[in-house]
Design a protein that fits this description.
Two copies of one chain form a homodimer.
Chain A: H1 29-47, H2 54-60, H3 65-71, H4 75-99, H5 104-120, H6 124-129, H7 137-163, H8 172-189, H9 198-211
Helix pairs in contact in A: 1-2, 1-4, 4-5, 4-7, 5-7, 5-8, 5-9, 7-8
The structure holds a DNA duplex.
DNA sequence: CGCCCATCATACTCGCCAGTATAGCATCCC
DNA sequence: GGGATGCTATACTGGCGAGTATGATGGGCG
């Protein structure tokens, strides 16, 4: 009867929503469910979990709330799914790194690079910011265990690096916290400043972590003509 | 009518609330106001901003909601005050560091140490997690400018370090993000794991940042598969 | 003593939002 | 064509929590 194809009236939004072109293939539940999750991730990312209503998410999909509930049982589950989607990327990173035929520091750096990319991805915010406090005890436990798994994975790589000599002596726990923290924090500012890709940021971070701030004797130093900062080089230079 | 003094039934909370002994000196508005802010900070820290009602805060002080509103105009302002309290600690750090007669890297490290302590303090969570999205546009702008000020301060120190040669060549912006991120993240896990003081954590982080993961030729290396011993101690020994 | 002001509690309002009841419409299969 | 089933909208409920109206209490001060 009615012409289903007349949806070209509006210019298409950046992200295609399966509903726009709907009516043709109605059997792609999974596709739509994914679209719901992604839309939720984008909204959470923009306004935060608590400031995003399910009506907002539905509106972003040009749909109404019950439709969202048709694919998902609760707002909490929505957050959880986004979290898992993000974490999965990182687990892959660990699996891949395990195969690399390089010292532990190299494997760690590879993980960190993927980690950074994941945090800068669309699920980054949800993964990083999923608060135990916002979730039911059951999900809270689940999320904590997943987070802990990643933390332990990093510590493990650091320990291996200590053993094979590819990493400078340090405390694995603190090191893991420092590394993960720096990367996690990307989720906070990347939204505002997308001048670099996630991969570029991650690469820059890895360089900083590996090299450290203190100049190395071997490194090419630009002995700047800037006025030499006289006196007591060693006071805090250690 | 009701005897307000019969509150000995419960064990006293860790922090004394001025209302407990009230009735004697009633002119210490500021003291009470501070107590409200601190109580808010503790509750936000425990349960998050959105999961904390003003009734909760009032209850923590053994008071009712209107009393809280007597000292503060809104929940938003409460968060803002906590934020400012935290930031102020960091601004002091910058001022103090400016006086130090050492190369820029030393001044930077000094700032970072204070920074870390501030994040681990009771206002740390509020300072770090105050979301622009949760606040009115006016306050959001205010908070952003304060945050930016700190960010610029760190970048500045990094640039100075590049010029006086005390810092390895790097991108100041990325470096500032990495450093601040690692420290900010402390607020996320410190609540759960208080096995170290803020100062210890900050010191450990600074050591990692300065040295980097890649072993230095000069440093004492445990060659190859020899079991590394005592790795934690020297990292924390500062 | 009686007024004023500071301080606080009881008891509301009011809007937002997660979640739901119900029903409409389409398609598929017989 | 007549269910059955998948998908979606309209229109509701119920609760929580920010903020407030009102009024009690009690001390300071003339």
């Amino acid at each position: 009867m009615n012409n289903r194809r007349t949806n070209g009236s509006k210019s298409a939004p950046a992200l295609a929503s399966p509903w726009r072109t709907s009516r043709e293939r109605l059997r792609d539940r999974e596709l739509k469910r994914d679209a719901v999750i992604r839309a939720a991730a984008r909204e959470f990312n923009r306004k935060g979990y608590h400031n995003t209503s399910l009506d907002d998410i539905a509106a972003a999909l040009e749909v109404t709330k019950p439709t969202v509930y048709y694919y998902v049982t609760s707002k909490e589950q929505l957050l959880f799914e986004c979290f898992v989607a993000g974490v999965e990327q990182i687990r892959v990173a660990f699996r891949e790194a395990r195969q690399l035929p390089v010292p532990a520091r190299g494997r760690l750096s590879a993980v960190l690079r993927h980690y950074g990319e994941a945090v800068a991805s669309e699920f980054g915010w949800c993964m990083v910011r999923a608060e135990d406090q916002d979730l039911s005890p059951a999900m809270s436990r689940h999320i904590k265990s997943l987070k802990s798994e990643i933390d332990q994975g990093i510590r493990r790589l650091v320990r291996e690096g200590l053993q094979d000599g590819s990493i400078e002596p340090c405390d694995p726990k603190m090191t893991a916290f420092a590394l993960a923290g720096a990367l996690n924090w990307i989720a906070h500012w990347y939204r505002e400043d997308q001048s670099l890709t996630g991969a570029q940021i991650a690469a820059a971070f890895v360089t900083i972590f590996e090299g450290g701030l203190r100049p190395r004797r071997g490194s090419l130093r630009i002995e700047s003509r800037a006025r030499p900062r006289r006196r007591t080089r060693d006071a805090l230079a250690r």
